Amino acid sequence: MAKIIVVTSGKGGVGKTTSAAAIATGLALRGNKTIVIDFDVGLRNLDLVMGCERRVVYDLVNVIQGEAGLNQAMIRDKRVDNLHILPASQTRDKEALTSEGIEQVLDELVKDFDYILCDSPAGIEQGAQLAMYYADAAVVVTNPEVSSVRDSDRILGLLASKTRRAERGQDPVKEHLLITRYNPTRVDDGDMLNLEDIREILAIDLIGLIPESEAVLRSSNQGIPVTHDQSSDAGQAYTDTVSRLLGEDVPLRFHEYQKKGLFSRMFGGGRR
Amino acid sequence: MKLLDFLKGERKKSASVAKERLQIIVAHQRSQRDQPDYMPMLERELLEVIRRYVQVDQDAININLDRDEDCSVLELNVTLPRS
């Protein structure tokens, strides 16, 4: 039985797709059979971040409407063996996703996989609600910035009421906070919310902290999830996040401001 | 640097302003989280009815739903202007 995890945030542009791709890659690298599904109908982007945009033939909507089988629509990742991608459709018809259709697809996948990641669209409309509806756990991606934190709180409200688990009175969806684009230097200057403040305001447990990093753009440029770049801080931070999702106790890294020494000031320091 | 900020009488750090603002807005959002979907509409319509008789401001009306085990209490507070 697969665990269904939704990657969500409310606000757009905070790193949902980057995180979904990086976490799915990390889970698969650890030997879990994993599929990541793009729920952003009309604005699919997961395929680009995963580097499989030219291999998309069928998509989630085709499967739901019976025009293609699941096996035809699933794309096998080139780099990691047990990783699969189910792309979203480019159709402008947002009604194309139905709750029954999604349930059927997930019921099928749950039998075969260890982890199903649902990459939610931004907002709190139908697409976002469908992405979270069947989830067992949620990764709430939040930037250290007022609008993102506020929207994350709205999403927490929906997770507590508009999910199958909530409606059936089962154990609630497990909520995890993932802080992205964290800049310890700006936190030290007092111009960025620190992680303790965010955790205190949202009152959920922290699953990971991804520092603001040049490696993230570099990896999406190339279509290689940042988890593969283990020389980068962001890549290592996502690997830590995956370990915590798997229940391991891993200390937090990259959250402290490092004063630059004379050597790194003179020679520009290491690669970020 | 810190000493220099102190001597210049540095303004409040923006991150602590952000935290205070967020604590207020999130507390407000959470108080509304459990209320039924019809509450904002009910609040608007009640305000309309009251305004037919007395001219009150938007913030003069305070509506609250408290839930107990077997019943809910709808509490309505209206501050009327002195006449």
Structural class of chain B: alpha+beta
Secondary-structure element series of chain B: HHHEE
Low-pLDDT ranges of chain A: none
Instruction: Look at the structure and give the mean pLDDT of chain B.
Output: 81
| Major β-sheet profile of chain A | 8 strands, mixed
Percentage of residues in strands of chain B = 15-25%
Total of DSSP H or I helical runs spanning 4+ residues of chain A: 13
Order of helices and strands of chain A: EHEHHHEEHEHEHHEHHEHHH
- Radius of gyration of chain A, in Å, reads 18 Å
- The total beta strand count of chain A reads 8
Distance between the termini of chain A: 38 Å
Fraction of residues in β-strands of chain A: 15-25%
Give a quick account of the main beta sheet of chain B: strands, pairing sense, barrel closure: 2 strands, antiparallel
The gross shape of chain A turns out to be globular
Helical percentage of chain A = 40-55%
> Which strands sit side by side, in order, in the main sheet of chain A?
3-4-2-5-1-6-7-8
Q: What fraction, in percent, of the residue positions of chain B are helical?
A: 40-55%
The most extensive interface between chains reads:
A-B, 19 and 14 residues
